[in-house]
Amino acid sequence: MDSKNKYQTSKNKDFFQALSHAWDGLKIIFTKENNFKSHLVTTGFILVAGIIFQVGFNNFMWLLSACFLVLNAEVINTLFEYLVDLVLGNKYDPLAKKIKDVAAGGVLLTSLFAVIIGLIVFSPVLTSIFKAFVNS
Ligand SMILES: Nc1ncnc2c1ncn2[C@@H]1O[C@H](COP(=O)(O)OP(=O)(O)OP(=O)(O)O)[C@@H](O)[C@H]1O
């Protein structure tokens, strides 16, 4: 199948064709899903904060991992939303609700993990800000 054929349903010919489809997938989720955009912006702020406050290599890796887990959970959530919509369209189905809600629950759970990691990593910074605020 020609790689320029937008109706391709067969396997990709090479790694670069697969990469271009994966990039298309990221563009879709970035342009269509506002939650993904917010998570990406938050990831940027957290990583910049990690650099500014010099949290150390290991802590920075924890922050990086937690942020990318949240982004990945959002990708999986969107995937299930698209699958349900593909199969059902606007038809209501209690199982579809379960699928979408469980996928959204996965994002929430991962986000809670990221918040806990953030609080642990930035606790020295937060403590010194709190002390400075109390002493002022
Ligand atoms: N076909 C359906 N049948 C039953 N319930 C549905 C169906 N589609 C959506 N829902 C319910 O409506 C809610 C909102 O649907 P939507 O597709 O916007 O998911 P969402 O998790 O809110 O999306 P996002 O992650 O983009 O904020 C879902 O969580 C689910 O409870």
Can you tag this structure with a few keywords?
136 residues; mainly alpha; Helix Hairpins; 4 helices; 82% helix; binds adenosine-5'-triphosphate
Describe the structure.
The protein is mainly α. The protein has a single domain, classed as Orthogonal Bundle (Helix Hairpins). It has four helices and no strands. The longest helix is centred in the C-terminal third of the chain and has 42 residues. It is elongated and about 65 Å long. The model has no long low-confidence stretch (mean pLDDT 92). The site of adenosine-5'-triphosphate has 14 residues, from helix 3 and helix 4.
Task: Give a quick summary of the entry.
This protein has 136 residues and is mainly alpha-helical.
**Tally of helical segments:** 4
- Strand/helix succession: HHHH
Helix content: over 70%
Overall shape: it is elongated
Mind summarizing the main beta sheet?
Answer: none
Q: Distance N terminus to C terminus?
A: 69 Å
CATH architecture: Orthogonal Bundle
Overall structural class, as computed from helix and strand content, comes to mainly alpha
CATH class categorisation: Mainly Alpha
Give the tally of β-strands: 0
Strand content: under 5%
Number of domains: 1
Oligomer: single chain
